[in-house]
Amino acid sequence: MKIILTADVSGLGESGDIVDVKDGYARNYLLPRGLAIVATKGAQKQIETIRRVQEARRVRNLEHARELRQQLLDLGPVTLTAKVSPQGKLFGSVTTGDIVAAVRKAGGPNLDKRMVSLRGHIKSLGKHVVDVQLHPDVTAAVSVRVAGEQ
């Protein structure tokens, strides 16, 4: 049975690969877990568009990761505005998606929110440091200043 992998499967292939597997393996394991879909022309077109989006986000190599780290360091502290109560406390906390949007707004590179790791919950105003894992060997520390907006 020809299937298209929707996730990386150890020993079989990466996301977007078209592979031929036994019918039982596909029906009983891969398809119910959402790891694959049946290969049709429509599904192949959909996977091609997903693959293009993933390629745009993926950091290709170590040199590219170093360039991105330098761009992040050149930005300096990134300012992020969040809603605060009249007492000056944040409503909720700052998420990785908020940080990625603030970096993009400040003129930084387009990052994936899964690259950002917080050193704890950001629930207060002021300066905080977050880590951005650009490559297994390259990490950038980005300073985020959380400012209040009522």
UniProtKB/TrEMBL annotation:
Domain Ribosomal protein L9: 13-40
Protein's GO biological process: translation
Record bears the keyword Ribonucleoprotein: yes
Keyword Protein biosynthesis: no
Keywords: Ribonucleoprotein, Ribosomal protein, RNA-binding, rRNA-binding
GO molecular function (one): structural constituent of ribosome
InterPro entries, per the entry: Ribosomal_bL9, Ribosomal_bL9/RNase_H1_N, Ribosomal_bL9_bac/chp, Ribosomal_bL9_C, Ribosomal_bL9_C_sf, Ribosomal_bL9_N, Ribosomal_bL9_N_sf
Coiled-coil ranges (or none): none
Protein family per UniProt: Belongs to the bacterial ribosomal protein bL9 family.
Function description: Binds to the 23S rRNA.
Name of the protein: Large ribosomal subunit protein bL9
